[in-house]
Amino acid sequence: MFRNGYSYEPASVSVTTIAMRRFRREEMFTEMSIDIADQMRALVAYNRWANGKVLDAAARLTPAQLDGSGPSSFGSIRANMTHLLTAQTTWLARWRGESGRPPETSSIDELRAAFAIADDALAAHVEPLTADDLARVVAYKNSRGDAQARPFWQLVTQVVNHGTHHRAESGALLATFDASPGDMDFVYFATEAYP
Amino acid sequence: MTTLSDQSRLLIDFNIWADERILDAAAGLSDEQFGGLRGQLAHMLGTMVWWHGNWTGHPLDDDVIRSTTTDAVTTFDSTRAAYARAHDDLRSFAAALDDDGWNRSERWWQRWGENGELSVGELIVQVVNHGTQHRSEIAVVLSLANCSPGDLDYLNFRLPQIP
Description:
- The complex is a heterodimer.
- By secondary structure, chain A is mainly alpha-helical.
- In chain A, 54% of the residues lie in helices and 9% in strands.
- Chain A contains seven helices and four strands.
- In chain A, α3 runs antiparallel to α6.
- Chain A is globular.
- Chain A starts with 5 loop residues before the first strand and ends with a helix.
- By secondary structure, chain B is mainly alpha-helical.
- Helix content of chain B is 66%, strand content 4%.
- Chain B has eight helices and two strands, in the order ααααααββαα.
- Chain B has a two-stranded antiparallel sheet with strand order 1-2.
- In chain B, α3 runs antiparallel to α7.
- Chains A and B meet through α1, α5, β4, α6 and α7 of A and α1, α6, β2, α7 and α8 of B.
């Protein structure tokens, strides 16, 4: 249970579960006080929810549609989502002081399974953090090898905002195949997550 | 320690920076090309104006929203001016809030016939995340017209500010 009343309820003890973990607010707005750590956890939970919406919609496509080139940063829906998975995995590996990349995937089922692992790992990493932890400056090298340093909370924000950018492109492509993922607004996540 | 106020104000600054990058890029479009973006730009603007009205205790009716958004997004210059006003309002609102203010609950779902509340801090996330969603879609159109706004990552916004 978090200070603000959010609780984090794993659908399974397995970190590889594909089922979405849910936040719920048990005592809505009674003595609520959200700090930056709660905000980051909510962002990461939103990120998982939105990834799931895009992947659910993508599962309705044929492989040709999934790989078809369209107007987006990386061409196809699969390429966009693979980029997103790689970014999310790379950031988490940096925070852990590891080198890590997601597995190669050849089907939508494999992509979903890889996202489930990545989303679980991200949530598990952020879950115990305090506001002080998130203020800690993290040194890392970017993809060009340049030394960088940012407060941790800014990097979490980067991951989620980057995800929204590429999910939007994927969503637009999905809509051209009559497979829209639907609204992915934060408030709609809140509607589902805080019953 | 970083506070919710710090994070929320920075999100607003990011949102303004990213909007301005989009508008800078849109300056290179023909009138006809710009016309194709009016709907998206008015929608993004409307979101900021509508939420700001609610947070400041002045909820806007549909006529006022239309006059300050759709009707204002006619030419590039009028759009830029309307965005500048909305950005100034958001910044002024954010500057006056402390952490208790960001935690203040706001009823919002009633507009859609549902019952629920979120804090102002969470609703700022909604505004900025919503902006990122639509800026992404607009950026695709701009890129197809050879007017890419460039990277709109949160870290691109922060990079110039940290030595």
